[in-house]
Amino acid sequence: MERETVIKIEQLSKRYGAQTAVDNLNLEVAEGEIFGFLGPNGAGKTTTMLMLLGLTEPTAGSVRVCGFDPARDPLRVKEVIGYLPENVGFYEDMDAHQNLRFIARLNRIPDSVSGPRIDRLLADVDLLKEADKPVGSYSKGMRQRLGIAEVLIKEPKVIFLDEPTIGLDPDGTNRMLDLIRNLSRERKITIFFSSHLLDQVQRISDRIGIMIKGKLVAAGSIEELAKRGLGVEAGESYTLEEIYMKYFKEA
Predict the structure, then answer these.
(1) CB of 118 closer than 8 Å to CB of 90
(2) CB distance 163 to 147 below 8 Å
(3) Strand pairing partners for 134?
(4) Beta carbons of 84 and 160 less than 8 angstroms apart
(5) Which stretches of 9-83 are DSSP H helices?
(6) Cα–Cα–Cα angle for 46, 247, 31, nearest 5°?
(7) Any long-range contacts for 238-241 (C-beta under 8 Å, 24+ apart)?
(8) Are 190 and 32 in contact (CB under 8 A)?
(9) Residue 177 in contact with residue 204, Cβ under 8 Å?
(10) Tens of pLDDT along 134-180?
(11) Cα–Cα distance, 12 to 214 (Å, whole number)
């Protein structure tokens, strides 16, 4: 059964004066898909995500997230998406329950609805035992998992993640990757994430896109890009780093 397209980008460009940050980008991402967005610094990844989030307007082309235009209907888009930046901000002196309740109220979710949801989410991200501690005492990994709970409080259809495992220890990294995978597989949430940690991208991504100098130079499953870029056949070994460097050098 063909999955619904939830992110649709057509001929998208963004220019800042004479500089082109994103150049004629075309891309589709399906419901429940984990899409890894790769590229060096300055490749246009952040600018693309800002346009998807409705935080900057395209110079040309169109974007649809769950059928809505982020530039024209930013509030409708914000109702159906969640965004976890690299550095998550919380009220340090408040505990996890209080932080999540505050976010729920900002999203106009009644306490009667958010209360049971918060308990469930804290259990999902394995923070229920630490839920009454001030967030200022949390480790980086705990803060990242609380960030996922914050993103999920409004039950989004799409989640955007920016370097979700950066700075985490191996245990924290594994917990975060398992959590991302479960959100996709069990809840059918679309995950669009940017990362420089290619081994981790390879572990969980259904498809990847590689941006170089504002252009999407490759998109597809890792197996497809390995065959296309490296000539690798099924059963042969390869790494995403080898695939990435092949397209990077050719660009």
Answers:
(1) no
(2) no
(3) 95
(4) yes
(5) 45-53, 74-80
(6) 55
(7) 239/198, 239/199, 239/202, 240/198, 240/199, 240/201, 240/202, 240/208, 241/198, 241/199
(8) yes
(9) yes
(10) 999 999 999 999 999 999 999 999 999 998 988 888 988 998 999 99
(11) 10
Token pair of 181 as six digits: 């995978």
Give 17's DSSP letter: T
CB-based contacts of 92, cutoff 8 Å, min separation 6: 134, 135, 136
106 CB neighbour count, 10 Å cutoff: 10
Digit-coded pLDDT (tens) for 200-236:
999 999 999 999 999 999 999 999 999 988 888 767 8
Calculate Rg over the CA atoms of the chain: 19
Which amino acid, one-letter code, is at 136? G
Measured torsion, CA atoms of residues 200, 204, 206, 210, in degrees rounded to the nearest 10: -10
Tokens found for residue 65: 């997230």
DSSP 8-state class, residue 233: P
Contact by Cβ (8 Å): 69, 109: no
Q: How far apart are CA 47 and CA 215, in angstroms?
A: 12
Model pTM above 0.90: yes
- For residue 137, the 8-state DSSP code is G
Q: Which pLDDT value is given to residue 103? A: 94
Return the SS3 of 12: strand
